[in-house]
Amino acid sequence: MGFIHCEITHDVLSPAKSWDLLQNNTQGAIIWFLGNVRDHNEGQKVTAITYEGISVLGENTLKIICEECHDKWGPDLDFVVVHRVGTLLVGETSIIIGVASPHRAAAYESSRYIIEQIKLRLPIWKKEHYASGKEAWLRGNSLNG
Amino acid sequence: MKIDIKLFGQAKDYFPTSHFQMVSEKESLTVAEIKMQLISQALQPEKSRALIEDSALATEVRVLQNHEQITSGGVIFVLPPVCGG
């Protein structure tokens, strides 16, 4: 079974540290996705986003999503998924997803699946801060069972 | 029974504090009953109704289903609609 590292952290994200976690000689394809805070949303100038999350539940959810990738694309995939919480300024990285696979197709598909499922299922909430001084929680997807 | 309630995201805007204790005369409450009590305790019950109804409840390790019974002890998280990434 492949390697899974999932983390919710207040620390500044380090692509180099994530890179080191995913290096080995058995995987021929590695895909990286980085999500950054952008400077605009729906016509407003954004200065920062506050991410709020729950560590244990969040990390459990990320692990389940990665295990679903093992079921869909093979047990030999390796994953590093790290999501930052706290207040991030424009340009800072909020998420790193790394997928290593023997072949590129599974890596691309798993990476896309993970970020789409994170949008739908990860217990994280975002409050945008605007240049106008206003702030607003962003709409999300209900987990209501 | 007493349940520790912890609010996240926009749900915090409808209560005086983000962490409080819910008290009930019953020995257990379903998820749906806890949500109804949350709405009644909110600063603006009618304004909060849609958000609380759309919210999930969870323990520290898993999201709960609406029919599940909650007894005293532990913390219940109130999870409004999520938007990670």
Give short descriptive properties of this protein.
heterodimer; A: 145 residues; Aldehyde Oxidoreductase, domain 3; 5-stranded antiparallel beta sheet; 4-stranded mixed beta sheet; 9 strands; 31% helix; globular; B: 85 residues; alpha+beta; Ubiquitin-like (UB roll); 25% helix
How would you sum up this structure, described in words?
In chain A, strands 3, 4, 6, 8 and 9 form a five-stranded antiparallel beta sheet that branches. Chain A has a four-stranded mixed beta sheet with strand order 1-5-7-2, with helices on both faces. The longest helix of chain A is centred in the middle third of the chain and has 19 residues. In chain A, helix 2 runs antiparallel to helix 3. The two termini of chain A are about 30 Å apart. In chain A, about 30% of the residues lie in helices and about 40% in strands. The model of chain A has no long low-confidence stretch (mean pLDDT about 95). Chain A has one domain: Aldehyde Oxidoreductase, domain 3, CATH 3.90.1170.40. Chain A is of the alpha+beta class. Chain A is built from three helices and nine strands; from the N terminus they run βαβββαβββαββ. Chain B has about 80 residues and is α+β, with helices and mostly antiparallel strands. In chain B, the strands form two sheets. Chain B has a four-stranded mixed beta sheet. The longest helix of chain B is centred in the middle third of the chain and has 11 residues. Chain B has a single domain, classed as Beta-grasp domain (Ubiquitin-like (UB roll)). Chain B has two helices and six strands; from the N terminus they run βββααβββ. Helices cover about 25% and strands about 25% of the residues of chain B. At the A-B interface, helix 2, helix 3 and strand 8 of A face loops of B.
